[in-house]
């Protein structure tokens, strides 16, 4: 499908050209920033320290860059129009490039000089160029019936040679991996397999097969589906498994999923969509975000789906209410499935509206949240023979977080009705989100997790000021910190001759809090969490925070995360 034609000088002149109310450059929160200019031509960086000679490739990150169109502001953290960032590392130095994703949403909105295309938490205003009848249809159309946005702002995926920008709809944009230029053609996964949307958190297997979680709406309850993409090609999509949502009119919001050698893992949490609210017309502010409901008194449901048969295990695993955006890792050992997640007990989606983010830290009405690394252990073998009301993880080593001065354990108890009630164990009391691991250990027993950290999450809500390394077996941790910068999700890159799991470096982009056009590539020794190199750049426009990204190592034929 070809995109809408780019705006002409005449159409721009005819639009409402009032000066937009951009936030001040030195914002209280970095996520308020708005970018007006990308850096297409690329700029060379100034290297401080030493980049390892073996580290060559491209770090590509995705996130919201444009928060204002004309006088209109996007309402939610997840709504801003995408900007892609790339750091190309070669011969001990690096260069930086950024480019707005020229999606249909980008083009249509800029042509109208207002937000026309609806996003997750922002209802679009009808295009002034369409007919009165079409405007009326737009106003009365509910979120569940609207055309999905192609503002692919969440993540990127390159398995072979094709780079894709992804979000949580059925739309995927193809991007030139060398220049970040948006391909005029776009892909819709529902053109190749019968699903309505998919997550932006796929898993990449060693054989280049990509698995992702999708969703189907029909006459009955919404179904969750697992989709396989051979060689990472959307055109090769095939459904591997289908399971119904547990609540017919309140399907869960699932941002990602877990994977082990034999199972796909879904956690239906307490955050769910209210289908009735999804029918609310645009004129009343109907959006997907407004249709979400948090049910703190309900249990979470852990669902294990066989990769071989596509069938769900009959055991009903439940836990107390929580929400997780991300899985750290999942693996199987000795008849148990270990599920490590970044967990919060809060109604996170409401907290991520820009109105809340923009409040000062001392505003008592501001909502903040803590995110902790938690481990759940699901006993799989001989559950039907297990006694009720007894601890099923009493002698299970993988359930324990143990060090010389500390011992804690996850718990699993069989209830009289046959359900298994799970209690997670907290692996660290330190904030940990946007988790990454040495991807060679995906689906396998592992020792280390990495993520962003905030020293004071109440005062510095979302202003990640450090990186954390966590030993998931002992709970011991190390933190790198620079309070003058906002840290992005760290990506682990192993040394070519690595012997241990943490032999390698963490690479990420850090953003200067005081000088808005400055950013740096950060290289951290993953063993001791000390800074190895920093490459400083000055961009054309304001640098905005990112969500997720991928390192494309030079010389590799298949790329994972």
Short description:
This protein is mainly beta.
Structural class: mainly beta
**Count of helical segments?**
6
C-alpha-based Rg, rounded: 23 Å
Number of domains: 1
Helix percentage range: under 10%
Largest sheet properties: 6 strands, antiparallel
Q: What sort of overall outline do the alpha carbons produce when their principal axes are compared?
A: globular
Low-confidence stretches: 1-20, 135-146
What's the end-to-end separation, in Å? Answer: 29 Å
Overall pLDDT score: 90
> How many strand units?
40
The share of residues in extended strands comes to 35-45%
Describe what you observe in this structure.
The protein has 561 residues and is mainly β. The chain has one domain. 6% of the residues lie in helices and 37% in strands. The protein has six helices and 40 strands. The strands form ten sheets. Strands 2, 35, 36, 37, 38 and 39 form a six-stranded antiparallel β-sheet that branches. Strands 17-18-21-22-29-28 form a six-stranded mixed β-sheet, with no helix packed on it. The longest helix has 9 residues, at 104-112. The radius of gyration is 23 Å and the shape is globular. It starts with 8 loop residues before the first helix and ends in an 8-residue tail after the last strand. 48% of the residues are buried. The model is unreliable at 1-20 and 135-146 (pLDDT under 50). Belongs to the carotenoid oxygenase family. One of its GO terms (molecular function) is carotenoid dioxygenase activity. Pfam families: RPE65. This is Beta,beta-carotene 15,15'-dioxygenase-like isoform X2. InterPro entries: Carotenoid_Oase.
